[in-house]
Design brief:
Layout: E1 12-13, E2 19-20, H1 23-27, E3 34-40, H2 45-54, H3 61-69, H4 74-80, E4 83-86, H5 91-97, H6 101-109, E5 119-121, H7 133-140, E6 144-146, H8 151-154, E7 158-166, H9 170-181, E8 186-194
Parallel strand pairs: 3-8, 4-7, 7-8
Antiparallel strand pairs: 1-2, 5-6
Helix pairs in contact: 3-6
């Protein structure tokens, strides 16, 4: 089931694939061109995502990716994009968790288009979910970057960002800004679940 992704400054894509924008998006257009979510971040998905991320149960990646892929319109997007980029983790968070859940999801969606080391997290930041919306932008300022070794190959490309959960949309939109500054033509996103607004 695809849900509208109405959130902070994000393009809304509903079940009928028609894009709509809220008034704040019209006043200040987001860098993220569109976003799809397979489901709402509610029971039983909250427990499943927690098990996947925090209890080292990476075997869930394939099943979650299958649900993501089945959201209306997503198969076409996966075919159309040139590159799939997982939202990166800081070195500290990666060491704590042992794996990047977004990378596992991206590889399960399409291993051939997935690039693991193109979008980088330069420094460790507080968890976005622990912050107020106004603090999330400051938390990510200067934290994301495109690898200098991969920047040239991204110019003019259509990119899909992948993550497990979308809350405010700040992380995805910040990543989209960084990618567009590097010359990416379009940036869309696909998440397993999104919080209700």
């Amino acid at each position: 089931m695809a849900l509208p992704v109405s959130s902070w400054n994000a393009v809304h894509t509903g079940p009928n694939h028609a894009s709509r924008q809220c008034s704040s998006c019209l006043q200040s257009p987001p860098a993220l061109d569109a976003c799809w979510a397979a489901t709402s971040y509610a029971w039983p998905w909250t427990q499943l995502v927690a098990q996947f991320k925090f209890q080292n149960d990476s075997a869930w990646a394939r099943a979650l990716a299958l649900l993501m892929q089945s959201a209306p319109g997503v198969e076409d997007v996966l075919e159309q994009v040139d590159v799939i980029l997982p939202m990166p983790l800081s070195a500290q968070r990666l060491a704590e968790r042992g794996f990047n859940q977004a990378l596992l999801l991206a590889k399960a969606l399409n291993p051939h288009k997935t690039q693991a080391l193109t979008l980088l997290k330069l420094r460790h930041t507080a968890r976005q979910s622990s912050l107020k919306r106004s603090e999330r932008l400051l938390n990510l300022a200067g934290a994301l970057a495109v690898s200098p070794l991969r920047a040239a190959s991204l110019r003019g490309q259509h990119v899909l960002l992948v993550d497990d959960v979308m809350t405010s949309g700040v992380s995805l939109n910040t990543a989209a800004q960084v990618l567009k500054q590097a010359g990416v033509q379009s940036v869309k996103a696909l998440v397993f679940a999104r919080t209700e607004v």
